[in-house]
Amino acid sequence: MLFFIAADMVSITLSIWLAFLIRFDGHIPPQYLVFVPRIILLAMLFCIPVFYFQKLYSFSWSYVSANEVISIFLATTMSFAFLSITIFASDYFPHFLNFPRSTIFTSYLLVLAGCAAARFSKRIYFQMVGFGGLAGKDRTLIVGAGDTGEQILRNILSSKNNTYFPIGFIDDNPMKKGVAIHGCRVLGTMAQMPYIIEEHQIKQVIIALPSAGSKTIRNAIELARAAGLRKIKIAPQLNEIIRGQISLKNLKDVEVEDLLGRSEITLDKKQIESFIKNKTVLITGAAGSIGSELSRQVARFKPALLLCLDQDETGIFSIAKELKNKFPELKLVSLVGDITDVANVEAVFKEYGPQIVFHAAAYKHVPLMELQPKEAVKNNVLGTQVLAGAAAINRVEKFVFISTDKAVNPTSVMGATKRMCEMICQAYNQKNVTKFVSVRFGNVLDSRGSVIPIFREQIKRGGPVEVTHPDMKRYFMLTSEACLLVMQAGAMGAGGEVFVLDMGSPVKILDLAREMIRLSGFEPDKDIAIVFIGLRPGEKLFEEILTAEEGTAATHNNKIFTAKMAASDFSEVENAITALKAAVYSNEKGAVVEVLKNIIPYYRPQA
Fold first, then answer.
1. Taking the mean position of all CA atoms in its chain, how far away is CA 408?
2. Pairing of strands 184-188, 180-181
3. Which of 46, 210, 262, 341 is 20 to 30 A from 161 in CA distance terms?
């Protein structure tokens, strides 16, 4: 800041002095000579404070952009307007009488040019001589000549400490072919990538297509691989980029998520904002995969207070620390507690008065819950009933329950408990002011304990990668995508609905395993073996989203549907919960499973 203040003072001094010299052909008359230092001082008194309030002393020298040019123009114009008014009103030159008015305009132009040049000098230097310092760096091709590609190139050119030597762009827009961006030309289209890579000896590719669908991303990756490249970086999706600014640290290696991601989702952000902004929001299971991502997404919509509840103290500490770093203005309360603790749950509702509840807390691991059905029912069903009761008593506006595709024709205890929770929400919606909705979707990519981190660990050990069955398929979603749609469904819910998210096409787990092995630089069944271990307790080959009797109704969002389901009777649900409580606290082995079979019509546990 001190450097730029000093530079601006020098620029103002030289500009005004030069303006007078230009006006008087190099010889300033004595009657004006005495006023030049005064005018310089006045200009400094106006320019420096205005520049400061326009934030021209608080920016990154390396990443100066058109925004700073606009700020310099506005600040300089404002400063010289004040200077002109002062001279106009002065006793020395009333109404500019006998004052060389052209010197004001000339000074204005010179100060504008000088201050801009000082701020752009580093970037201009790197633009002119930067390529000389790129020895030993990888020749890099940028896929996508849009705003994201331009930002990435600008970051490369303005930073010495990176591994990229930018050669050019490729883009499928024919209007961009041959266009130069910061000295790098658009060399061709995506289809020409292998030829361009070979001709220009490219060693690394950056895919700068944050709004493209997974099909386009996958095509770019396959073309780069076909040309023999292994160094492939990718820009994150738009909803992962805060304020739309992309830097080199945002670039990541290609992950399986980038290949399985679905088409871009459309959101009614105004509806979500009116749903969440200035509200007190409680998220249960906030330390888990879905709960933590929900916390991040909710924080972006500026709630009045965000309550994060989980029994995992380490997880709550971690997500709270992350949220405070990313959203310093966020009012956040971290709560460690068990959702089955009635007194604790009621105390939370009475003290903080949440207006919206996202209920993501659950035991989710299918084989583990098959061995411990009592714990599954206690946490998933009884915990949901405790929260639903507290929400109803405290007149919460909306209660959003996170369900799963495993609730459809369940063959596992976990799936049956989730279906029971949907029934609780439907039943409670009939008797209370609170609107209860459920949102049903499939597997979340890279969540804790899911198949992707398990495969990743097995590949790291050198294999084998264990697949349960060659025909097993699953629906997958990105965590961020699932949470955004959950918020959208919650915002549009009128109460009593079971929303079903469009899951795209199911993915064969065997194909997923093979792709992850390739992403790690190995060949499946050659470098790393794949073995089949058989279905585990409670697992199905294929997860449905709806039962045969259920249909769907469209909503105004093409990724969200409403399941057409029979209403759950409140008294029947109450009786079912009473029976489950008795089974949980009885010593009879298998009692919980038998009660679930009687309650859930389609629950057929595996032998």
1. 30
2. antiparallel
3. 210
- Reported as a pLDDT band with limits 50, 70 and 90, residue 548 is very low
Residue 356 Rama label (left phi>0; alpha psi -120 to 50; beta)? beta
- In total, the chain counts a number of residues equal to 607
Q: Write out the two tokens for 363.
A: 């035991």
DSSP three-state, residue 79: helix
pTM higher than 0.70: no
Q: Higher model confidence: residue 208 or residue 123?
A: 208
Checking if the pLDDT of 237 tops 60, the result is yes
Distance CA 485, CA 479 (A): 10
AA identity, residue 315: G
Find how far residue 412's CA is from the centre of its chain. 33
The first and second tokens of residue 582, run together, are 């008795």
- The strand pair at 232-234 and 252-253 is best described as antiparallel
Distance CA 32, CA 26 (A): 13
* Crossing angle (nearest 10°) for helices 102-129 and 36-53: 50
Q: How many CB atoms lie within 10 A of CB 138?
A: 16
**Rounded Cα gap, residues 239 and 198, in angstroms:** 34
The pairs formed by 525-532 with CB atoms below 8 angstroms and a separation of 24 or more are 527/463, 528/459, 528/462, 528/463, 528/464, 528/465, 529/463, 529/464, 529/465, 530/463, 530/464, 530/465, 530/467, 531/464, 531/465, 531/466, 531/467, 532/466, 532/467, 532/468, 532/469, 532/470
Distance CA 463, CA 559 (A): 37
Enumerate residues 6+ apart whose C-beta is below 8 A from 442. 404, 405, 474, 475, 476, 477, 503, 543, 545
In terms of DSSP bridges, do strands 507-508 and 443-444 run parallel, antiparallel, or are they unpaired?
unpaired
pLDDT number for residue 547: 45
Q: Which of 423, 275, 421 is CA-nearest to residue 356?
A: 275
Q: Is 177 a catalytic residue?
A: no
In this prediction, residue 264 carries a pLDDT of 56
Element of type H or E holding 499: strand 498-501
List all residues 6 or more positions away from 330 whose beta carbon is below 8 Å from its beta carbon.
Answer: 299, 302, 303, 306, 323, 324
**Banded model confidence at residue 134, pLDDT cuts 50, 70, 90:** low
In the chain, the amino acid numbered 2 is L
Average confidence score pLDDT of the chain: 83
The segment with the largest mean pLDDT, out of 298-302, 439-443, 471-475, is 298-302
Rounded to whole angstroms, the Cα distance separating 440 from 499 reads: 6
Tell me how far CA of residue 467 lies from CA of 261, 285, 382, 461, 596, in angstroms: 21, 29, 34, 16, 29
Give the Cα separation of 326 and 339 in Å (integer): 27
Tell me the backbone φ, ψ of residue 289, rounded to 5 degrees: -65, -50
**E strand intervals along 243-390:** 252-253, 280-284, 305-310, 332-336, 356-359
| Beta carbons of 169 and 185 less than 8 angstroms apart | yes
Report the relative pairing of strands 138-143 and 204-207 from DSSP bridges: parallel
Characterize the bridge pairing of strands 498-501 and 560-564.
antiparallel
Q: What is the dihedral of CA 407, 411, 413, 416, to 10 degrees?
A: 30
> Distance (Å, rounded) from C-alpha 276 to C-alpha 490?
10
Choose between 127 and 34: higher pLDDT: 34
